[in-house]
């Protein structure tokens, strides 16, 4: 009977692992997919010529259209949920080709707060983007995705 209980315990653990993996079928986005998301969000939140110049270097001013655009991008990208926040594991996986995993993990861990301040969603996302923009992620990520 002890073997029976061990087997039963093993099956429960295996089922939990399979279920957890099934719930997160998100995949790393290619450069084309990221740029398609950016284009979609630009249709919803168009940038003027000045903002387009800022986007070329992924350094955005604090403006309503920018914050709403960023919410759109991060949400459609699947790395942010307005209810639960940033999905750190997905962000780390997405940026792995850009820097060493440990560096990315540290940057995302520092920047992806839980919105303890109770900020509106757009301010929360903008805060994250500003934090990440001070790291080595944006220039290296731009090499992969290119300009729109």
From TrEMBL:
CDD domains: PBP_GOBP. InterPro entries: PBP/GOBP, PBP_GOBP_sf. This is General odorant-binding protein 99a. Keywords: Secreted, Signal. One of its GO terms (molecular function) is odorant binding. It is found in: Secreted. It comes from Ceratitis capitata. GO terms for cellular component: extracellular space. Residues 1-22 form the signal peptide. The keyword Signal applies. GO terms for biological process: sensory perception of smell. Belongs to the PBP/GOBP family. The lineage of its organism: Eukaryota, Metazoa, Ecdysozoa, Arthropoda, Hexapoda. SMART domains: PhBP. PANTHER family: GEO07291P1-RELATED, ODORANT BINDING PROTEIN-RELATED. The keyword Signal applies. The gene is OB99A.
């Amino acid at each position: 009977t002890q073997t029976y209980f061990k087997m039963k315990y093993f099956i429960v653990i295996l089922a939990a692992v399979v279920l957890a993996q099934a719930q997160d079928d998100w995949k790393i986005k290619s450069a084309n997919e990221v740029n398609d998301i950016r284009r979609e969000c630009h249709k919803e939140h168009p940038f003027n010529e000045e903002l387009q110049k800022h986007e070329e270097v992924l350094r955005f001013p604090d403006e309503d259209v920018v914050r709403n655009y960023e919410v759109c991008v991060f949400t459609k990208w699947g790395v942010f949920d307005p209810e639960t926040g940033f999905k750190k594991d997905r962000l780390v996986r997405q940026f792995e080709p850009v820097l060493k995993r440990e560096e990315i993990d540290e940057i995302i861990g520092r920047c992806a707060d839980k919105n303890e301040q109770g900020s509106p969603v757009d301010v929360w996302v903008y805060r994250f983007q500003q934090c990440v923009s001070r790291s080595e992620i944006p220039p290296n990520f731009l090499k992969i995705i290119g300009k729109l």
